[in-house]
Write a structure and sequence with these properties.
Quinone Oxidoreductase, Chain A, domain 1; Alcohol dehydrogenase catalytic domain-containing protein; binds zinc ion; six-stranded parallel beta sheet; 343 residues; seven-stranded mixed beta sheet; alpha/beta
């Protein structure tokens, strides 16, 4: 038997005993060593009537661990290999998959989600996963760092898809884990100026440390005015929206330069309202971003080489403290940015 954190209701968990899963053909059994709590684990319990994180589910899609045992027909992996899990299951057969857009698979789903399928995730001691979901962890990358693959991949995918050029101005709205990593990646990508918008002084200080040239506390300053001052009244080539409510999307659209791009990552709300004129009359592109495609290897390489820092934004807690971890994040009292649970 193994320990598992099981969803009882919105932000309610119980640690239960569950059978250790059997790896099926083509699967490996992974001993989970770290599992992150994602923003989608938070709003997935309340938005959409909570369908994304239903009671009975073991959540957790940001995970890393050690291969315990191989199922039938698995090649190229050995027990003891350290791995980071790609939570995006893809079929490999549909049209998007055949184009290589595995993040857009028509039959895809995510581990630890109950939206498209009720598939248990990694907030437990063992998980059986298809071998194609495995990424080898470089020796220098810790398990808690390896568990960041999903959200760092997401941030990197947003920057890649913006096709930004050297010297572009980036506005990053939202200073959660994804926003803070997007700032680091934008800087590495040759951003000429980075402006971060947030509401937490602690996170804004981190944003500055990671390379933001100007940070804006949006409750104390008029973010749009400051962005326009900082960009000679023109706006930014790239805006990364990493919050997902109407106000922040409205700001994103208005903060973009003529022909600028808004990379849409945030989805705290299911529906948003944006002013349409600044979008149309300045030919701003609003580009949806989900998951990642080719970014897994670069993410792990860049963490291994110290180019992306996730350690400073991660708080490690034992799995048994899952309830407390959610209370810390939802209550916003403690200055936690990202929690990695250790089973
Ligand atoms: Zn996630
Ligand atoms: Zn597919």
């Amino acid at each position: 038997m193994m320990k598992a954190a099981v969803v009882q209701g919105a932000f309610q968990f119980a640690i239960e005993e569950r059978p250790i899963p059997e790896p099926q053909s083509g699967e490996v059994l992974v001993r989970i060593m770290a599992v992150g709590i994602c923003g989608s684990d938070i709003h997935g319990m309340t938005e959409d009537g909570g369908v994304r994180r239903r009671p009975g589910l073991i959540m957790g899609h940001e995970a890393a661990g050690v291969i315990e045992r191989l199922g039938e027909g698995v090649e190229g992996w050995r027990p003891g290999d350290r791995v980071a899990l790609d939570p995006q299951w893809s079929c490999g057969q549909c049209e998007p998959c055949r184009h290589g857009w595995l993040n857009l698979c028509e039959n895809g789903f995510i581990f630890g989600s109950s939206k498209l399928k009720f598939t248990h995730g990694a907030m437990c001691e063992y998980l059986a996963v298809p071998q194609k979901q495995l990424n080898l962890l470089p020796d220098q990358v810790t398990f808690a760092e390896g568990a960041s693959l999903d959200y760092v991949g997401n941030a990197m995918h947003a920057v890649n898809e913006s096709q930004s050029r050297f010297g572009d101005t980036f506005v990053v709205i939202g200073t959660g884990a994804i926003g803070l990593v997007a700032i680091q990646i934008a800087r590495l990508r040759g951003a000429g100026k980075i402006i971060a918008v947030g509401t937490s002084p602690h996170k804004l200080a981190m944003a500055k440390k990671f390379g933001a040239d100007r940070v804006i506390h949006s409750r104390e300053e008029n973010a749009l005015e400051v962005i326009m001052e900082e960009t000679d009244g023109k706006g930014a080539e790239v805006v990364i929206e990493a919050v997902g409510v109407s106000d922040t999307y409205a700001l994103a659209v208005q903060a973009a330069k003529r022909r600028g791009k808004v990379m849409a990552l945030g989805f705290a709300s299911n529906e948003i309202t944006i002013p349409v004129q600044p979008l149309l009359f300045r030919e701003v592109s609003l580009i949806g971003i989900t998951g990642y495609v080719f970014e897994a290897a670069p993410v792990l390489k860049m963490i291994a080489n110290g180019k992306i820092d996730v350690k400073s934004i991660t708080t490690e807690l034992p799995l048994e403290e899952v309830q407390k971890a959610f209370e810390m994040i939802v209550g916003k009292k403690n200055e936690v940015i990202k929690v990695a649970l250790i089973p």
